[in-house]
Amino acid sequence: LACSHHHCAFPLNRNELCIWNTAAAQPLHLSGHHYSISAVSFGSKPNPLLVCSASRERVIVWSLDECTQKVQEGLTPQGIVIGTLLGMVLHVRFSPDDQQVSVCAGNRIYMLSAKNEAILAELDGHLAPVTAAEFCTSEKSMLVSVSEDRTFKARKVWNYSTGQLIYQSGVLTAFPLLSLLIDEENKQIITGCAEGQLWIFSLISSHNYRCIAHINLKKEQEKFCNKVWKSGKKIGSTGQNTSKLCKTNMRPEGSVETSLPVLLIEHCDFLICFHNEENISSALNTNYFWIGSTTGLLIINLSNFELEGFLSYRDYSDLSIQFVGSCAITRKAVNGKVLCLITSMFEDMIAVLEVNLAALVRTQQTDFLLSRNKKSLSVIARYRITLNVFFPLRVKSMVKDQPLVFHNKIKSSGYTAAPQMTIFSPNNNLKKKEVSKWKTTCKQKNKEYPLESYPPIKYEKEISVTCKPTPICCIQYSGDGEMLACGLADKAVLIFNSNLTNTYNVFAGHDGAVNSVGWSHDKKWLVSASEDRTLRVWSVCKNEPALILGKEKFLKTVRFAQFYFIDAFILLCCGSEFHLLSFHLDTTKDDLKRYKQRSVCKLVQKFPMASTMEITSLSAVNDFYSYIVLTAGSNRALEVFDLNAGCSTAVIPEAHTRPVYQICQNKGSSFSTQQPEAYNLFMTTAAGDGIKLWDLRTLR
């Protein structure tokens, strides 16, 4: 099957080609094949519009304008036979200039001239029948093919006589690859197999055809249907589309689970869904594509690899085709609608569907978009913070030293004046000079970093923090960028100045590797967490800790710790929960109890993360007032906590294919001014699964 703008091409009576003009509602019958037509394709250029049809015995190119004119004159239209006796043809495709045609017959690809019968090149190398081949317009004379041998190959076709193999992939799956699409804008290869798996590879030369993403369509479909069903239930929606979608997703107990073979991959004109809306700017930077399967059509967002819409053939009672054997869809929408041509897997039936793309997406997404917009999350506090779960830590009042006063005169001891000789005078000037020197060297005026400039990529300096090879477990700049703290695996915490010229301070005391370090907002304190199940708060100017929380406080290792709410609290994660601590720091010493710390700390509340064994990452903003805390667990989920309400507000299941080990928020900067909406963005990363950029307002 093939679709192009206002035309649909499909075989009629097996060996007759029918061109259906949807605008004029008139069929055009083209005869010339003796065996069943197995492949059809439209040309790349709209004028003149060409059609190529292939069967076992011949490959024919038709010009629709010439054929239509001959039919009007009462003559029999004829095409140009460009190939004969090539074998069973599974796929044909025109080159971008419509001068050549690639024909996938058996294990080989034949490059044929579209003007006459001539074989320009014969490409082999696949071990099984070739199922699809596409031309790459960004790379001249480049052809990519997929096969039932479960591999794809990229070739350069030079002079159409020899084909040089550029790259050959390994076996991707246990199922044959059926479809192929080249995204020229993003320079990516998208291929799908018979089990409902999608692979996306990069075409950028320096990437060496590496895999960017792997999508399981069945899981994405289940996730999308559950999301629509939950949102509809939350806001009380009983719409027909939601109920149909849920019924489609629910599989009766004991039934056979069917796969989702990827029969088609095509570009989707998704911008029509955002016409005259505020969020059209986000759609302009995103590509979408159709996935045609045996049971329905799916719309995939290429930016986040999520499902945007799903059309099930079972939901339409007037459609007699329930299982599709082949499908084709138009790339561009006409009047907000796209044409979809499907054929039955078990019967000789063909149907033409007119899909209203905007209506399809809005009926499925309006429910959960409305439910999110009612209580949209924001990192910046939008209303008065009640702090109903917070309470200040009360510090015991201590008797201050008072001057001694004698109310009666004391007789003189014999001295008429104070002794003039100085017995001992401590040398305090050295320390003052060192501190003043540090302040003068690091005191710099924060200049506004121009947003239109490129990010800093120039290599500046490299230093070795220790004599022996020691892993650096964590690193963090202070808020003003003047100092840099790093935690090492040898139990030490180091502080450098921003240009890495010298070491300002070294903190020692942990009995295990330092997992995290965090600066206070005023840059006077540093909090560190270690594998020894302790947490320490250090004064930047001293070598001794101001506060120590020992092993008796925590049952498991403290993975992360930071100051929170502009140094009012400390956040730390331990096991499957994170703790909120209030504290008071006092570095003064009692002469009688020198080894007893006067700093105190108290637990405010524990917040458990649902259905996880351990919190792998935690993030919150300390530079301004924010009640949002982001956590990631070993169950690969993200969870958003609202500490103003004292509970969890949102869960994003399966955020990555592996547990997230780092959450990076936009916490503001002293060197740039940003829009308030920019602070709602955060990034996550997992081993082997890349980096994802999220929006807290939409949780996508």
UniProtKB/TrEMBL annotation:
The keyword Chloroplast does not apply. Keywords: WD repeat. WD repeats lie at residues 507-540. This is WDR27 protein. It comes from Cepphus grylle (Black guillemot). Pfam families: WD40.
